[in-house]
Amino acid sequence: MDNKLSFYRLINNLKWPKGYTGKIFLIAFIGTHIPLIGLFIFLTFYFPIDERAEILIALLIATVVGASVTLYFIFRLLAPILMTNKAVIKYNSEKELPNLPTGFTDEAGMLMANTQECIEELDELLVLKNRLIGMVSHDSKTPIGSIKIANGLIREEIESGSLNEEDILKYLELIETSANTHAEFLDNMLTLARFDDGKIHINKTDIPVEEIFEKLNKNHRVYFKLKNIDFITKSELEKGETINADQEKLVSILNNLIQNSIKFSKDNADIELTISKDSKNHIIHVKDQGIGIPKERKKTIFEAFSDSSNGTKSEVGSGLGLWIVKVFTNLHNGTVFFESEEGKGTSFTISLPIS
Question: What does the pLDDT look like over 185-242, one tens digit per residue?
Fold first, then answer.
């Protein structure tokens, strides 16, 4: 690489011209005048003086015209480099996305296309970084603040000398709920980071259905109690039959779907989880009686950081839950789709191939 830049380094050390375009013009100018110099030497030695002048004048005119045309078109050929340089400078100073052409296939065209792609990816990363910073700052305050409040109330109860067991249990539930919320948020952030690094893999094992139900009940027990939600689990599989999947990721899929259902369900509602199968797939349904998904959000709900509405009790989401559902389902070569009607609830269906 260093050898390829040796001539460029030599030319770059010239005090004049300073610009890269000027250096190109200088080389082109010298190149176009080498024939003129050679011919001048030839005429000097082999032609009489009276014949030499007319030939030199004609040759000089032709050379000037040729050099001008050559330099003009060289300048036009340098347009991709100049445009690319201007686009990078403008993005660095104003963060304005360029619109460089991407349809050319030679080196200059690929330079523009690759620069456009790199700037777009960089811009997406900067947007992601800003959203992550804002999200971590915002979403970490609520659960940590709730834990501090509950801890202070417990301390007051202890210091007062008149412990109320019912109040203490409520405060402990608040701490548990807040801790679970924060842990879920951190898990989602970790999933996002691993996905961007291409480090998400699956490790399939045979998972008993009863074990899945037990984990989900334990993970969401506090949330069900806060809204008095009846969590109904049904299995249409034969007793003892297992699902071949990555247990951690399957539970994460269902955690996010159930948490989403809880968030948009009102008090005293039902959430139903059903596991069945057809000839090729295990099929998982998560159905709720919640407020449903607005029409304008249906196309984007599986996108990372899609606009997340507040829940029925002002619960705030990260906008990553359903994105994780989609990513983990795809890793299993499965599919996910939903049906929803505003005011009547939502049903998500996960289909996982039977190994």
Answer: 677 667 766 666 666 778 899 999 999 999 888 888 878 888 899 999 999 998 888 9
HSE value, Cβ hemisphere, 13 Å, CA-based, for 105:
0
Q: Domain end: 66, 97, 121, which one?
A: 121
Q: Helix or strand or coil: residue 226?
A: helix
Please state the pTM of the whole predicted model.
0.60
Residue pointed to by tokens 């501090």 = 148
Six token digits for residue 111? 């330079």
Domain range for 81 is 3-121
Note the pLDDT of residue 66: 76
For residues 74 and 76, give the distance between their C-alpha atoms in angstroms, rounded to a whole number: 5
Q: What is the phi-psi region of residue 335: left when phi exceeds 0, alpha when psi lies from -120 to 50, beta otherwise?
A: beta
Q: Collapsing DSSP states into helix, strand and coil, what is residue 336?
A: strand
The span from the CA of 211 to the CA of 178, in Å, is 25
43: in domain: yes
337-343, Cβ contacts within 8 angstroms, sequence gap of 24 or more: 338/293, 338/301, 340/292, 340/293, 340/298, 341/292, 342/291, 342/292, 342/293, 342/294, 342/295, 343/291, 343/292
How many domains does one find in the chain? 2
CB 353 within 8 A of CB 284: no
